[in-house]
Amino acid sequence: MDRPPVPPAPETLAYSLTLPADPRTHAIVRSALHTVLYAHGLDDMTDAAVQVASELAACACRFSTSPEVYVRLRYREDALRVVLYDAHPRHTHPRLAAACDARRRSTLRLPACVVRACGGDWGFGDAREPGGGTRTWAVLPREGTRAYLVGGHAKE
After folding, report:
1. Distance CA 7, CA 40 (A)
2. What is the pTM of this model?
3. How far apart are CA 120 and CA 101, in angstroms?
4. Rounded to whole angstroms, how far apart are CA atoms 122 and 104?
5. Which terminus in the chain has less CB density within 10 A, N or C?
């Protein structure tokens, strides 16, 4: 017996994409996120979410040692979760790890500011998936992204 399709709603937002580790990938992420948020009735989150997701994608592409990056989008508990996986292995030597982390943190300054302005959280670390690499993530609460838009931060 076929079930009728479930119409898109905030609670059904769950997407995963494998994309090329290419300088143009951030534009694909921006376009996809615009479409996904609109389809799920979350277009009030667009400005902050698109800014953060595209910056995370650009960073993942910059650091990836493979030809692909993996993007996961989920909406749970009134927040959008954006996760990017790249194949850049975590360094075992402490000084190399610290230098690489500092470089990645510097690359992620803009999305970190947006996430903070929205009252969210972000970070990066070892990918737990097979194959390793680095997992970079951001959690954007819906109320915070609304306040971000209303506060005019998106226009600065």
Report:
1. 8
2. 0.89
3. 20
4. 13
5. N
Q: Do residues 139 and 122 touch, judged by C-beta distance below 8 A?
A: yes
Q: Using CA atoms, how far apart are residues 94 and 110, in angstroms rounded to an integer?
A: 26
Do 141 and 79 form a contact (C-beta atoms < 8 A)? yes
Task: Tell me the three-class secondary structure of 40-89, residue by residue.
Answer: CCCHHHHHHHHHHHHHHHHHHHHHCCCCEEEEEEEEECCEEEEEEEECCC
Both tokens assigned to 5: 């399709």
Three-class SS string for 83-103? EEEECCCCCCCHHHHHHHHHH
- Read off the pLDDT of residues 66-115 as tens digits, 9 standing for 90 and up: 999 999 999 999 999 999 999 998 888 999 989 999 999 999 999 999 99
CA distance 93 to 1: 56
